[in-house]
Each structure stands twice: as structure tokens, then as C-alpha cells.
Amino acid sequence: MEKILIINLLGKRFHIPYTLVINYPQTLLGNELLLSKYYRHDIKDYYFERNPLLFSYILTYYTLEKKIFCPHNIPIELLQNECQFFKLNNSNIYHEINKISTYQYFRR
Fold first, then answer.
1. Residues 76, 95: contact at Cβ < 8 Å?
2. Judging by DSSP bridges, how do beta strands 39-40 and 12-17 pair with one another?
3. Cα–Cα distance measured from residue 45 to residue 51, given in angstroms and rounded to the nearest whole number
4. Which pLDDT band, with edges at 50, 70 and 90, does 9 fall under?
5. pLDDT digits over 32-91, tens only?
């Protein structure tokens, strides 16, 4: 049976296959030791007081080979703060400049 991480961000729960993050041990989600301090044994989830609306962009780091695409209506600084918290070093953040999908590249 596949191991699933249950990530709880302010009440919004995400079920993430452990195989998605295990190859990134330098990140918070991929490092069992770092992640363990957020585990709630009574509820059996990992709890973070973080913005659940931004978490889907964080997940793209794992699925798009360290690339994160940020829509034009989200300030890049918010996503950079989330990347720092989740230890997504060397992430490639592409910030949409306008609605026609022109992207500006940021390296973290």
C-alpha cells in the first residue's frame, strides 16, 4: 500500500503520495526528520499554519522538476515566502506578468 502524506493547511487537507516528495530530501516535505515536528499523532496529519491557496503552486515544484508558475494576480513575494518555508531552494519561479501568459523568471 502506497504511503500517503496528509498535509493540513489551516483546515484544508491535501493527500500527497510520499513517492512524489521522497526524491527531494532537501525540502521540508521530502525530509522525514524536518517534517516530523509538524505531525499530529491524534489526527494523523502534518499541520501547517500556511496559506492553503498557495500550496498547489508549491506542489508543482515536485511535479515540474523544480519549476513553479505564479499567476499574475498573486504577488511573487507571497510565493517566495512559501518556497522559503517549505525549503524549496533552487526553485525556478515563473511569474505571469499579465493575462496573456508572459512570464518573468526568478531564481530562488
1. yes
2. unpaired
3. 16
4. very high
5. 999 999 999 999 999 999 999 999 999 999 999 899 988 889 999 999 999 999 999 877
d(CA 11, CA 14): 10
Task: Give the separation between CA 76 and CA 54, rounded to whole angstroms.
Answer: 11
- Which residue ranges make up each domain of the chain? 4-107
- Indicate the pTM of the whole model: 0.87
User: What CA–CA distance (Å, rounded) separates 58 from 26?
Assistant: 14
Q: How far apart are CA 46 and CA 39, in angstroms?
A: 4
Domain boundaries 4-107, corresponding CATH code: 3.30.710.10
CA of residue 96 relative to chain centroid, distance: 18
Contact predicate 58/86, CB 8 Å: yes
